[in-house]
């Protein structure tokens, strides 16, 4: 069962959340001004927006393709900032 790891940070510290790939309704990736933006919509109706300036769209797409085609069990999005 494949999962995606998200990192949520507040003034009190950071926590991680694992989202089962099967629970994702929509997964959109775009590049805006050199940053990779991800919009996740879960089957529960929750939406999560993520932003990373550290990774290019090409590098992200390579990592995602490798994850989808491999036996890896989780995809790490901890370097992405959750936008609230």
Q: Your description of this structure?
A:
With 84 residues, the protein is an alpha+beta fold. Helix content is 15%, strand content 54%. The protein has one helix at 57-69, and strands at residues 3-10, 13-20, 24-32, 35-42, 47-52, 74-76, 81-83. A four-stranded antiparallel sheet has the order 3-4-5-7, with no helix packed on it. The longest helix is centred in the last third of the chain and has 13 residues, at 57-69. It is globular. The model has no long low-confidence stretch (mean pLDDT 92).
What is the number of beta strands? Answer: 7
The percent range for strand residues is: over 45%
Mean pLDDT: 92
Biggest beta-sheet profile = 4 strands, antiparallel
The DSSP helix count reads 1
List the uncertain runs: none
What's the Cα radius of gyration? 13 Å
Any idea what the shape is?
Answer: globular
What is the terminal separation in angstroms?
A: 28 Å
Order of neighbouring strands in the sheet with most strands = 3-4-5-7
Helix content: 10-25%
Structural class: alpha+beta
């Amino acid at each position: 069962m494949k999962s995606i790891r998200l990192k949520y940070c507040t003034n009190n510290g950071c926590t991680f959340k694992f989202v089962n790939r099967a629970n994702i309704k929509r997964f959109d990736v775009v590049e805006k001004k050199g940053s990779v933006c991800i919009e996740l919509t879960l089957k529960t109706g929750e939406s999560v927006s993520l932003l990373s300036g550290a990774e290019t769209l090409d590098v992200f797409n390579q990592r995602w393709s490798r994850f989808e085609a491999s036996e890896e069990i989780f995809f790490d999005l901890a370097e992405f900032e959750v936008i609230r």
